[in-house]
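Handoff note, outgoing to incoming analyst
You'll be picking up this chain. Sequence as last confirmed:
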Amino acid sequence: AGEWEKALHIFSVISHSKVEVNALTVNSTISACEKGGEWEKAMWLISEMGQNSVLSNTIAFNAGISACEKRNEWEKALDLCRAMAQHGIEANTITYSAAISACKGDGQWEKSLHFLSTMAKNRVELNIITFNAVISTCEKGGQWERALQLLGLISHSRVRHDTITFKAVLSSCDKG
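Most recent structure output, in case you need it:
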C-alpha cells in the first residue's frame, strides 16, 4: 500500500473514533494524497474539513492544488483556488506557484499570466519558482514572446533568474 493509503486508513480510524479530527490530521492526510498524486482523495478531504467543522486552511488547499497539478487536473486546481477565495482563505506564493504549474500541463498560459498578475496586485511575494512556472507554461503554449517579456520583467525585479529560467525561455523560442 502507498503512503497515501495508509494515511487515509489512519484518518478513517480517527474519524470513526472519539478522537477529534483537527486541521493537522486532515492536512497531513491531504499532503500524503498530494505526494501520491491522489487529487480526488485530496479534494474529498478538503470537503470533509468543512463537514467536520475543521477549519480549512492554506496548507490543505495548497496540498490539494499540488495534487491536481501532479495529475494535470488544472481545472480542479482552479476550482480549489476559487473555493479558497469563497472561504476567505488567503492564497500565498505556494498556492499561486502550484496553480500556475497546474496550468502548464495543458498550456493554459493565459491563466498562468492571470495568476502572476493577481500575485503582483495582491502583493504576494514573487519568486523565481513562480516566474519559471509561468515561463514554462508560456513555452508549452507556444508563447515565446511572452516568455521573453517575462525574462525582461525578472531582470527589472528583485528576483534573480537561474539556469532553469534561461533554459525555459530558450526552449520557448526554439518551439516558437
